[in-house]
Write a structure and sequence with these properties.
alpha+beta, YefM-like fold, 3-stranded mixed β-sheet, 3 helices, 3 strands, 45% helix, elongated, Antitoxin_Phd/YefM, Antitoxin, YefM-like_sf
Amino acid sequence: MLNIKPVSDLRNYNKLLEQVTTDDPVFLTKNGHGKYVVVNIEDYDRLMTSLEIVEKLKKAESNGTVSLDEAKKRFGL
């Protein structure tokens, strides 16, 4: 279940941050609309790594087909 809080809950940020766990971010609303997400640092790192991989795959796709060994070399795998 989503953990949704008003941004005003940041006044007591220690309590709010205790609710942020791996795979369970806290969504903050402002004026009743989603505005921010507070995530665990491990989740953030995983997200950024995933985005980097997607960007590399898009680049590889636009450059044409390559062998698996060549792809591994290009992406440091």
